[in-house]
Amino acid sequence: MMGIILNLLLSFLEEKKGKEVAAKVKKEAGLEELKSEKHYTAEQWQTLLKAVLDEFGVDAETGQILFAQWVVTPVLEKFGSFFRASKSTLDLLERVPKIHLDLAASSGVKIEEKLKLVERTSDSITMHYESPNKMCVFLKELGKVAFGYYGEKCEITESKCMDKGDSYCEITFKLV
After folding, report:
1. What sign for the dihedral angle of Cα 146, 52, 56, 53?
2. Which of 7, 114, 150, 160 lies at a 20 to 30 A Cα distance from 26?
3. Predicted confidence (pLDDT) per residue in 69-84, tens digit
4. 53 and 97 share one domain
5. Is the domain of 109 the same as that of 151?
6. What is the pTM for the complete model shown?
């Protein structure tokens, strides 16, 4: 996981719970020297996420939804060109796996491909997501937000899910 995501999670915590709480969580997670361009292990991400969820007193699903809804503003500020370069949510979602890999590569990091395009039709896109971080709820919520950005409505289904024992998640975003 790229440090920029960890930093965004800490910014979310800081905005909602204060600087002192965010600094305490960062220190307890052993991430005092957190750098946006550095790659962090799944264990480091999970340790930080668990600490943040504990501060909010919510489960992983609720925490991922809250974080995804919050993260939209800073993502649009920093990466709005990705949204503006796409004509629709499906166009954006089709580009997301490559964007993910390219952002890491631009920092000199080669990462595993966790998100893959399975199928694209005129009204839907199906993606395969596999990661020990199990952030499929976050991904689905970001999809909802993206559909809202483009003024589109969607239906999201997940035919396979790691949280339900599958080895990967298969998520379909469909225009309605």
Report:
1. positive
2. 114
3. 999 899 888 888 888 8
4. no
5. yes
6. 0.89
